Amino acid sequence: MAYNENAGEVQTLLHLFEEDKPIIFKGVQHFVPHFIGIYVGKDPHSRRFQGELQKWVAQYGQGAFVDVMKKGYEDTLPNFRHIQINQKYLWFEKEDRIIQTPEKVEQTFTSETESVDEYAVGVWTRWLIAFPTTLTDRADVHTIFRFSSTRQYQDKSELGNRVLSAFLTKGNYEFSTYDASKPTNAVDAKLPYDNIEGEWTYIYAAYKNKNFYGMVLFKDQQKAAHLNIEVTHQVLTGYAHFVLGANEFGYKAFHGWFYDPRIFLGAGSYISESQKVVEMIHKLHRKLPVTPQQAEDFKWPVSLLDTTNQDDLDSKKDQLNFEFTDKAEMQSYSIGFWFQNAVLLPEMENEYTGLVRFNYKWT
């Protein structure tokens, strides 16, 4: 805000995220002051300002007035560019690894989220019923991730507890966020799925300028589903917290694997087209870990046992039990063997005899 006696104007500029809004008062005449006092944040007649004030400047005399209606005022106004809006920042784990439940990931952002109103979360997921442990009681809701802007640990009761969040329910991926413009601020939307057991799916949620975008990429099915929600978010002002795969607020954690979670902050984070999200994945994300197939020069993966020697069979029968721990991602398998019929022993009459049993875990 500035006053110019020659022009007879008071000019005010609101520097917002999307644009600058000048407010001009014309035909204004001030008295020549003999004393000037400045109140910052509070004066005797009003309540104190709630929030932060940074780099305030008072200028007097010739050159103090900057005409905000003229081109180039941004370079002349003091501290106009002190706060950088939507600075780019990308967070990811330095170690290339698969995150297996019940392990969870938490990350807090402070300076990276100063004056940010564009952000996104992306992560590869793999729903597994029987790995690394067996899920005996599937819940109605399993938490995938939650990105919040409130320091107080709670859920939905205040704005910002769910800035970007995703859940797995029976038959749907559910995205949850908030709308600051509505009295009931919780907003949810769903994307259905048919079968995801053992399949890699990429979950993406983003926000910018009253637009929430959620997408699920089904890699093995080679398809994507997406949704858009019109909501109003508050600007991130120096704090955000990310939680991946956590048991919280009565919701069970996602069961299975996570891979390469990433937080996108600032300009360029928001993508609202599934094909462009796929291009971003190829450009920025690590390649999914894939178990290589057997080479052409096949060799027996296990040692063979000569079962024709009846004297050694009983003592060596335990050698016929094998585990293939490095075949976690194989989705096709078979078993074959030679066998010879023989007369059952008298003591085995009317008893079932097992030849072979093959166990697998669908991962």
TrEMBL record:
Name of this protein: Uncharacterized protein
UniProt-listed InterPro entries: RSBN1/Dpy-2/CEP530
Domain of life: Eukaryota
One GO CC annotation: nucleus
